[in-house]
Write a structure and sequence with these properties.
The protein is mainly beta and 600 residues long. Among the domains are: 1-41, no CATH class; 204-251 and 301-313 and 322-595, Porin (Beta Barrel). 9% of the residues lie in helices and 56% in strands. It has a 16-stranded antiparallel β-sheet that branches. Helix 1 (2-11) runs parallel beside helix 3 (26-41). It is globular.
Amino acid sequence: AGQLYQVHRGAGEVFASLGVLHGAADGDTRLGLSYQTAQAQTRITISGTVKDAQTGEDLTGASVHLVELPGVGAAANAYGFYTLTVPAGTYTVEATFVGYPAQRRKVTLDKSQRLDFKLTPGGQELNEVVVTGRSSQANISRAQGGVETLDIKQIAKVPVLFGEKDVIKTLTLLPGIKTAGEGSSGFSVRGGNVDQNLILLDEAVVYNASHLLGFFSTFNSDAIKDLTVFKGGMPAQYGGRLSSVVDIKMKDGNNQQLHGSGGIGLIASRLALEGPIVKDKGSFLITGRRTYADVFLKFSRNETTKSASLYFYDFNAKANYTLNDRNRLYFSAYLGRDVLGINNFGNNYGNQTATLRYNHLFTDKLFSNTTLIFSKYSYQIKIRANDQDFSIDSKIQDFNLKQDFEYSPGARQTLRFGLNAIYHTITPGRVTAAADAVVNSTVDRTNHSLETAGYVSHEWSATDKLDFTTGLRLSQFSLLGAGTYSAYDTNGRIVSSQAFGRGEVVKTYLNLEPRFAASYALSPSTSLKAGYARNVQNLHLLSNSASTSPTDLYVPTSLNVKPELADQLSAGYFRKLGTTGEYSFSAEVYYKWLQRQVDY
């Protein structure tokens, strides 16, 4: 019986049952051990979703674990889905999330099954900014360093200008993130430039995240659920920027009851409406915001001020519908615009995004997300004065197709892999002039390019103390015709020129981007982390100031402008403080190499 015990100890999941069996008679002990051997070899998958019981919102990052198997658990992904593969048996499954009482279910796992959780808000409210991931100690055990997840409830507590909650301004309060200047929504992360931050709204790129020349951000807090910022070694599924990723998720909408809210501030008013399309199956969210400074300008006695334009608006919409347990559809959109004008000068600019997503569960272990994305940023300057009657337009527009997979072979491993293709259209400038204007109508060449990537990422909890995240991203950027493209020497002289037809490849760049992160837990509340990441950027910002402005231009990598590169090494010390871990302390050091930087 002692030899059999050693064999079962290698299985790692049946220690408790073996201890009980050793107290029985010799014959019974052998029979019990034989039965447990067969059971330990049978692994069962349990999967499901974790949602808010009152609103139906997915609880991203909620922890699901087995009470009887310490250290075995999973975190709900961005769509609230989790999966766990464990030995057959009877367990207590517990789901937890900050601000929600834990919920437990007793289950007998003799076959794969689905177990959904609906958590009811309540309990003690924690003064916590970092939302938990796999457990209450996620920031300790997670291999990734330099990651912060902010909840919109915490953002609402930060003092802001004119009472307008601003998620971008809140980011600048975090270590390693520095504002580009007063009155600017631009920010730099760990020494990077303002254009080296990838800002995503439901996976769609937002190229200019500012209103009123940078005093406010484009994100209406009524529509935002949470945001995650990666300051260092971003996971392999992200790419295209050198310094950081700001991943902002919109609310799904309340699928239980119709709910409306609004507010009147010193500078803007807002309205929000959410409710079920079909209760428990689908929901919608609509929010709007507009400033009314221009309304007060009408009361001015000065005719110039009275006729001026000064306002912005934004509109968010989202809908989702659950087709069945394995299929779900999402659609979200954003439209925002600034209108500024005085006398014969006018300037308007803004973003448009749309995201269509399809979630499919192939098996209890394999999750798929297919996404079609549209992004556009444009601005227009108008001048109407005497013989100066013309306008200047510029735009950058993307069509993006993504396919992401998430595979969980066991409780300690998660494999993510996928493909991505983005078709960029960039028109740096178009001048449209009246017939009698002193300037002529001109059009800069519209640049077309195709940016593709494939990635694989592996998260592995090697032991209860040691975690690894390894990844590799292969990115390709192809500049496409039509047009005549020239190569220049170091003195700016043309050395060659060639005409290319529409869709013809002008130049292709291929880059490998390895990613690595590791953490070692010194204790349940303390860990050390280290990581390395290489990032590549193929879109470059031309700006005449240190901060972003509405008239900034984007240019693609070309024959002369090479892809920007960044390599970053980082290491850090993380510790939870307080009896319940309500406080945290972290210290990180990093070294970053930046190559092929663009100066304008």
